[in-house]
């Protein structure tokens, strides 16, 4: 212990307390290290999407910088606890404020990715220093063989606790912003405990400076945690130009509801989901054209409808215009979005309280693909009102496997319809979706219309022989109360201009090769989206 402390401990009690402090440091270091990695990657994915890319990059940068830190630790000599305490203080500062810094940088686009890289490398480097330093310090209490075994096992145990707690507890209860600050405090507890236990034996005038720095940073992080809601509100208001009615981080995404005069807008992870100034155009097109074919195929009797996604309740609002529909099953992944659509007075007004006022509506919380795998029932109409294929998680909902599952849940004369992104802004993604649907169903018919807040927006309807029926024989009238759609418009919605027509030879999108994902990204990148 001569390399680590100027005055070694005397007695079993002092030795045991030293070991307990160091064991806590090892376990907590492992816990915080994984949490920081997950927080940084999750924050970037919230803002930019593409979880596979950014989790892979984060892991790669993190491991490389850990290796660099571990390698450079061999050059550290003298009283190693000095180095460890300084590393913990800096790590608590950087790790605690990593998420708030990324939020701040997001408002300055050019800074966001460079800061992400710097934070990942810094955190990884400091964590890379921790393990060898702790191992060398513990070597003064036991053999190197035993010290390495203790350090690695405790470090890995802390990592296990972190990976379990992060999705099950931290994100649902605290969100990423508060979680980062909270674990900054946890990390600072290592430095504070080390100073408390070993400070009097380090014999250095710098200990006072370390204590001042440790407590100052702890108080700063604590203040950030205390005023987290105020900080988040201020940040949200700087990003969204309209008045914010509601904001929260759910287990899956950031949800923001804004209002400006009569225009209510819902954003998920910063992406606009609807604007009440024109959402009726989208939802009327999504629901009423396929419903016309469903009624043509099944002239009498009750109808059963499945809505996948659509947790805002707008598609269900349109479906409730049909008295023939006996049951509407809505499946959405995010329970918090459903709760917002059911309880928020502005959203309830926009969706006509569709999720709570009618006993025909049954809500299931869960994954759309998993629900289809259950094959719980056959439906006359399946409406896929799902997020765009902007990430690997959502691209699978535009795959051949997904559409095969949808077909297996359709009644013999049933109709399937999905939103299919913009044939103008993401032309190849739209026609890839059409090609994939056409590979599964006997008939697939693409159509589109202008939704001003989105631009030209497309859909694909699919089914059997009923879709071969001439349009004018099917679309004769729509339910009363529609705000945009007229029967006379229908023919034009199935026509595509030369600049948005099918370029051909695009192939299909599968789970293994989600071609729709790259084509979607390429399309929106071209337009600066």
TrEMBL record:
Residues engaged in binding S-methyl-5'-thioadenosine: 253, 332, 367-368
Binding site residues for spermidine: 283, 312
Protein EC: 2.5.1.16
Superkingdom to which the source organism belongs: Bacteria
Pathway: Amine and polyamine biosynthesis; spermidine biosynthesis; spermidine from putrescine: step 1/1
Residues of the PABS domain: 223-464
GO cellular component term of the entry, any: plasma membrane
Transmembrane segments: 21-48, 54-72, 84-106, 112-135, 156-175, 181-200, 212-235
Location of this chain's protein in the cell: Cell membrane
Active site annotation, chain numbering: 385
Name this polypeptide is given: Polyamine aminopropyltransferase
Xref: Gene3D superfamilies: Vaccinia Virus protein VP39
């Amino acid at each position: 212990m001569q390399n680590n402390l100027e005055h070694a401990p005397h007695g079993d009690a002092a030795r045991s307390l030293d070991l307990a402090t160091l064991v806590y440091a090892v376990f907590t270091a492992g816990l915080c290290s994984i949490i920081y990695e997950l927080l940084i990657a999750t924050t970037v994915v919230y803002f930019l999407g593409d979880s596979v890319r950014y989790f892979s990059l984060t892991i790669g940068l993190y491991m490389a910088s850990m290796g660099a830190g571990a390698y450079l630790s061999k050059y550290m000599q003298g009283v190693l606890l000095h180095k460890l305490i300084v590393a913990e203080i800096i790590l608590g500062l950087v790790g605690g404020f990593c998420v708030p810094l990324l939020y701040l940088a997001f408002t300055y686009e050019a800074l966001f990715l460079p800061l992400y890289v710097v934070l990942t490398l810094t955190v990884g480097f400091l964590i890379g220093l921790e393990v060898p330093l702790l191992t060398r310090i513990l070597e003064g209490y036991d053999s190197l063989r035993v010290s390495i075994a203790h350090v690695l096992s405790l470090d890995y145990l802390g990592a296990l606790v972190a990976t379990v707690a992060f999705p099950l507890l931290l994100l649902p209860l605290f969100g990423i912003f508060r979680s980062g600050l909270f674990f900054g405090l946890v990390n600072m507890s290592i430095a504070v405990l080390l100073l408390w236990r070993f400070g009097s034996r380090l014999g250095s005038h710098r200990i006072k400076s370390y204590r001042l720095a440790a407590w100052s940073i702890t108080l700063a992080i604590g203040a950030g945690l205390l005023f987290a809601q105020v900080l988040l509100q201020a940040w949200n208001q700087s990003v969204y130009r309209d008045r914010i009615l509601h904001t929260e981080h759910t287990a899956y995404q950031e949800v923001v509801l804004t209002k400006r005069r009569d225009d209510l807008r819902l954003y998920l992870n910063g992406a606009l989901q609807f604007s009440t100034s024109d959402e009726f155009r989208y939802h009327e097109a999504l629901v009423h054209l396929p419903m016309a074919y469903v009624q043509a195929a099944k002239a009498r009797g009750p109808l059963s409808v499945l809505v996948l996604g659509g947790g805002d309740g707008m598609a269900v609002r349109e479906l409730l215009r049909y008295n023939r529909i006996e049951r509407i099953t809505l499946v959405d992944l995010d329970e918090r979005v459903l709760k917002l659509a059911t309880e928020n007075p502005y959203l309830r007004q926009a969706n006509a309280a569709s999720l709570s006022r009618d006993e025909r509506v049954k809500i299931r919380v869960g994954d759309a693909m998993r629900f289809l795998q259950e094959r719980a029932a056959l439906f006359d109409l399946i409406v896929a009102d799902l997020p765009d294929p902007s990430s690997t998680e959502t691209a699978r909902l535009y795959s051949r496997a997904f559409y095969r599952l949808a077909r297996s849940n359709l009644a013999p004369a049933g109709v399937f319809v999905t939103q299919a992104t913009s044939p103008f802004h993401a032309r190849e993604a739209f026609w890839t979706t059409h090609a994939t649907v056409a590979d599964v169903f006997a008939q697939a018919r693409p159509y589109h219309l202008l939704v001003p807040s989105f631009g030209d927006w497309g859909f694909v309807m699919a089914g059997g022989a009923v879709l071969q029926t001439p349009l004018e024989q099917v679309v004769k009238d729509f339910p009363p109360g529609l705000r945009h759609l007229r029967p006379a418009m229908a023919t034009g919605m199935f026509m595509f201009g030369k600049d948005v027509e099918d370029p051909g030879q695009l192939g299909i999108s599968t789970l293994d090769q989600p071609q729709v994902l790259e084509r979607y990204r390429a399309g929106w990148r071209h337009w600066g989206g």
